[in-house]
Amino acid sequence: MLVGRGLSVWLLCLTALLLFFFGAQINPLVFMVAGVLVPLPVLLAGWRPGGRGALLLALVTALSIFSLKPGLEVIRANLGFGSLLLMGVLLTGLKQRGVPPPRAIILTVAALSVTALLFLLGQAFFLGVSPQDLVAQKSSEIMAMVQQVLGEAGGGSSPLLPGVSQADLEAILRRLLPGLVVANTGLVAWLNVILARQIAFFLGWGKPEPPLFYWATPEWLIFVVVGTGFLLLIPVTQVRTLSLNLLLVLALVYFCQGVAVVAAWFHRLKLPRFMRVIGYPLLFLNPFFFLIITLGLMDLWLDFRRLHRPRDA
C-alpha cells in the first residue's frame, strides 16, 4: 500500500520518470540515459510499495504525458517510453510471482518483442505499406536519431562506422533490425534488474537475493549457436539474415554470462566497490565487449565459477 515510506518512494520514482521524460525532450544525453533507465523507477516502486504500486506508477506517468497534448500523435511519439514503462511492470509482476530473474528477463523480452512485431504489422496494414518498407522507414528514423544524439551532420560517413556510408549502414540496419531490437530490449531489461537489486540491497529492502553472478545459460543452447553458424553457409539471403539476427541475440545471452564470470572474479578477489564501478562500464566498450562474449562461451567448458563442481572440490 502507498503509505508512509512506501508513498515517499513512489513519489520519488514518479518524479524521476517525469524528469527522464522532460529531460529527454531537450537534452540528447538525458535522452540516452532515459532510454536505458526508465524501467528502474518502476522496478523500485514495485520492490518497496508492491506490484500494484509499480502498475499505478506506470499508469500515472503515462496519463501525465498524455494529458500534455491528448491525441494519437503524443501516443505515437512516445511509444518507446511507454514500452520501457511496460517492461518495468512486466519484470515487477514476474518478480512478485517468484520467477527467477533470468527467466523473468527472457519472458519480458519475448512479450515485448511479440508486441512490437504485432504493432509493426498493424501499423503497416493501416498505412497501406509493406512491412519491409516500414522497416526501411524505421531504419532511416533510427539513423537520423543516432546522428542527432551524436551531433553529426547528415550525409557522408556513418557516425558509428567511419568509412562506411550512411546508405550502406542503413542497409545493414534493415537486415539486422529485428535482432538489434530484441538484443537491445534484453540488455536494457538485464541492466535494470541488476541495478534495482543493488539499490534494494544497499537500502536494506528485505533479504538480499542470490547474486546474479550465478547466471548460467542452458548447456543445450550451444547447439543453437553452432546450428545458427552453419546457417550462414547457406547461399540464401533470407536464411543468412535470419542467422545473423539469431547470432545477435545469442551474443547478448553469452555476454551476460561473461559478465557473470567477471562479477564472480570481482567477488572472489574482494575488489573495492569503486573499482567495480569503474570496471563494469568498461566491459561494454570495444574490444572488451567481444572478449566478454568469448569468455561466456568458454565458461561452458572451463567452468570458471565452478558452478558444476562438487562443493568440496
Describe the structure.
The structure is a single chain. The protein has 313 residues and is mostly helical. The chain folds into two domains: 1-208, Arp2/3 complex 21 kDa subunit ARPC3; 210-313, no CATH class. It is 76% helix and 0% strand. It contains 13 helices and no strands. The chain has helices at residues 5-26, 28-37, 39-47, 51-68, 72-77, 79-96, 101-127, 131-150, 166-203, 221-231, 237-269, 273-282, 288-302. Helix 4 runs antiparallel to helix 6 (79-96). The longest helix has 38 residues, at 166-203. The chain is globular, with a radius of gyration of 21 Å. The protein starts with a helix and ends in an 11-residue tail after the last helix. Residues 152-159 have low confidence and may be disordered.
Task: Summarize the SSE layout with pairings.
Layout: H1 5-26, H2 28-37, H3 39-47, H4 51-68, H5 72-77, H6 79-96, H7 101-127, H8 131-150, H9 166-203, H10 221-231, H11 237-269, H12 273-282, H13 288-302
| Low-pLDDT segments, ≥5 res | 152-159
Helix and strand succession? HHHHHHHHHHHHH
- Let me know the average pLDDT: 82
Number of domains: 2
- Give a quick account of the main beta sheet: strands, pairing sense, barrel closure: none
CATH topology of the largest domain: Arp2/3 complex 21 kDa subunit ARPC3
N-to-C CA distance: 47 Å
CATH class identity of the largest domain: Mainly Alpha
Strand tally: 0
Count of DSSP-assigned helices: 13
